[in-house]
Structure formats: C-alpha cells, structure tokens
Amino acid sequence: MNNHITTIAFDADDTLWVNEPYFQEAEKEFCVLLEDYLPQHSVSQELFKTEMQNLHLYGYGVKGFMLCMIETISRVSGGTANFHLVNRAIEIGQELLQKPIELLEGVTETLESLKGKYRLVVATKGDLLDQERKLKNSGLQEYFHHIEIMSDKKESDYRKLLKHLDCQPENFLMLGNSIKSDILPVLEIGGFAAHIPYHVTWAHEQHEHTLEHEHFIELKSINEVLKHL
C-alpha cells in the first residue's frame, strides 16, 4: 500500500462489532414460529426472497427485516395466520434492536493506534436510528471525524462520500468484512480496500471469487492493518 493514505473508513456491522450472528438468531426464531406451515429451511428461503424483493423499498436494517417477516407470515400462511405470529415477529425485531454492543477483538486498540495519524470515518449501511444508537453505545464515537450511514454502498455512494470528505481515491482506505459492499466498489473508483473476513456473512453479501488487485489487501484481523500503513 502506498504511504499517501490520509483517510481510513471502517464498516461497522461485523467489522467493529457483532451483528450478523444476532440476525441469524432472530431468523431461527422466526423460522420456528412458522414451522406449522413450512419446514424451517423453507421459511428461511421465503424470508430471504421477501428481503431481496423489498430491498429497493426498505434498504438495509432491522426495520426492513421486521416488515419482511410480517409479509412472509402473510404469504406463507395464505393470509390465515393468527395475529399472535405477527406480534411475535415484531417482538423479535425489537429484541434485535436492543442487543448489546459487542466490540470485535482488536478494534479499540487499532483505533487508538490510528487516532491522530489519519482521519478516521465510519461508512456503514443500515437504519439511521439503529446505527446511531449502536455507535453511541459502542463508546467509539470519539475516534471518528465523520459518520456516514449509507443507504447503499455502490461506486456512486463512495464517490459522494469522498466528495463530502474532500478526499481523493488514492488517499482513501476502506476496511470491512464484505467484499461486495466494502471492497469492490472502492477498488473500482481507485481507492484502497482491506478485507477482514468474519465467520458469518449474510447471503446477500457473499462473494465466492478470488480477488487480486494492487490496491487490495486481505487481513486476518483488524489490527493487521497497522503493518500495512
């Protein structure tokens, strides 16, 4: 990596703190809820189909997930489900919104090492209120110059972010767990990107192909980035 990096952006969910395991726990509860109608794996498939159909309407985050659970209940049951199933789906979503923040290993130490040397940014997808709450509860706010809660992470979204930060792509490094959202779009616009794999990845974010690029680095943990700067 070149030594011209001035701005380092971090994805939040499953990069700074635990997120996807909580969603998977919630989905398992939901699948059990509907097992009188379909096998659990089929309920999971139906829920994912609903999420993909509605992504352009709801975006990313727990609230969209809740609406998709309710829609899936209606479709799977043919509109005959008892309303207590809808109430339980709403409770599952509310419980998800109130999960404690569990920082991933090495996050605080890495941010402490980078603080003052680089402009640090959070660049994450999700629901505005939920992500603001998580950031506040994480205790990490003090490290960041700017927080960007993005509706999506396509090339145009990163260009908009860089323009707002008055930062050139060659001076920008993005760290995240999703090749699809955190890595590929940044490489496409000429930035640098570091992938930190997480043991659980949402199906929509999975990327199976090997990636080779002069601006790309693969890390085993977040603190490994310090060796590349």
Please give a structural write-up.
Keywords: Hydrolase. One of its GO terms (molecular function) is hydrolase activity. The chain is of the alpha/beta class and 229 residues long. It has two domains: 7-16 and 104-227, HAD superfamily/HAD-like (Rossmann fold); 20-97, Putative phosphatase, domain 2 (DNA polymerase, domain 1). Helices cover 45% and strands 12% of the residues. The chain contains eight helices and six strands, in the order βαααααβαβαβαββ. It has helices at residues 20-33, 40-58, 62-76, 83-97, 107-114, 128-138, 155-165, 179-188; strands at 7-10, 119-125, 146-150, 172-176, 192-195, 216-218. It has a six-stranded parallel sheet with strand order 3-2-1-4-5-6, with helices on both faces. Helix 8 links the parallel strand 4 and strand 5. Helix 2 crosses helix 3 (62-76) and helix 3 (62-76) runs antiparallel to helix 4 (83-97). The protein starts with 6 loop residues before the first strand and ends in an 11-residue tail after the last strand. The mean pLDDT is 92.
What characteristics describe this protein?
alpha/beta; Rossmann fold; DNA polymerase, domain 1; 2 domains; 45% helix; elongated
How are the secondary structure elements laid out?
Elements: E1 7-10, H1 20-33, H2 40-58, H3 62-76, H4 83-97, H5 107-114, E2 119-125, H6 128-138, E3 146-150, H7 155-165, E4 172-176, H8 179-188, E5 192-195, E6 216-218
Parallel strand pairs: 1-2, 1-4, 2-3, 4-5, 5-6
